[in-house]
Amino acid sequence: MVRIVHYINQFYAGIGGEDKANQPPIVLDKVTGPGLGVQKEAGDRAEVVGMVVCGDGFYGEHTDEARAECLDLIRKLSPNLLIAGPAFNAGRYGFACGDIASVVSDKLGIPTVTGMYPENPGVELYSKKTYIVPCADNARSMGKALKEMTALGLKLVSGVKMGPARVEGYIHRGVRKNFIHEESGGERAVKMLLAKIRGEAFRTEYEMPDFKKIPPAAPVKDLKNATIALVCSGGVVPLGNPDRIRVSSAESYGVYDIAALDDLTPQNYESIHGGYDREWANKDPDVVVPLDVMRELEREGVYGRLHPFLYTTTGTGTAVSFSEKFGREIGEKLKDAGVDAAILTST
């Protein structure tokens, strides 16, 4: 009987949301939440012997401590397999799942599997250190993700030789294996070339990373006469979020007139960002969008003037395609308005 330990965060453990993100590592006294799905998929082949829980905030802010405590709790449960998440597109959760999975694999020498949306930052950090099953960006695909994660995990435990990522259903780990092929490299290369010329499908044998080269902007030549804009991915919006910008995985941004404002206060602005503890941002939104300091510098003549509009969205989980779209559109608007530079604030 395979012994499975399932790692989840405070939300899926039913402990709480962002208000409980600082939950230290614990072991639940029963199998619950996603753990029930893992047990269902495993059937009589395995047993979920424990569920280790840690708050996303605690793991991110006290990583060394959280890692050591979680590892100790998992070791005491004597598992043959660790399943973490799935984290979908939640950045902090993805980091925690990837980190504890990689540490358990290294320290305990057992297979580990987690699940993430391909654009989750945890994929880039940990895809070479653990097996990551690709999943959707939200929990609507929970059932499918748990089924695929459990199946992959049990296959790893069985010792069956693993095939390529595209066949086995995990995100490429950057591992290349040599084997004897019936055709020489030259023959295969020519066949790929001919297929490409004919417009037919083909698969390269050596995928290269696609790094976009973004040249840095030239420095502002005349700061004292420059117009500077504030742009924010920290989710600071007018009170009530009038444009209904999503708290994560944003598909829109807002443009708000700040010409008459010298300060952002809880009475006029708030943070709706779903990726960090908003307590201090909602007590003083200027900690994310420094309007108060920009006004002081403007009065002192450090720069020319502040652009009268704030551009804002939420960055957590937002797809690269939308981020690029926002950047192009906002950039064009700022250029058309004669803005010389922008300060992009995050969290």
Pattern of helices and strands: EEHEHHEHEHEHHHEEEEHHEHE
Named at the architecture level, the CATH assignment of the largest domain is 3-Layer(aba) Sandwich
**CATH topological fold name of the largest domain:** Rossmann fold
Q: How large a portion of the residues is in β-strands, by DSSP E?
A: 15-25%
Helix content: 25-40%
Number of strands: 12
Q: How many domains comprise the coordinates?
A: 2
Mean pLDDT: 92
Indicate the low-confidence ranges by residue numbers: none
Describe this entry's structure for a reader:
Helices cover about 35% and strands about 20% of the residues. By secondary structure, the protein is α/β, with parallel strands linked by helices. It folds into 2 domains: about 1-170, 3-Layer(aba) Sandwich (Rossmann fold); about 225-345, no CATH class. Strands 2-3-1-4-5-6 form a 6-stranded mixed beta sheet, sandwiched between helices. A 4-stranded mixed beta sheet has the order 9-11-7-12, with helices on one face. Strand 4, helix 4 (about 90-110) and strand 5 form a beta-alpha-beta unit. It is flat, with a radius of gyration of 24 Å.
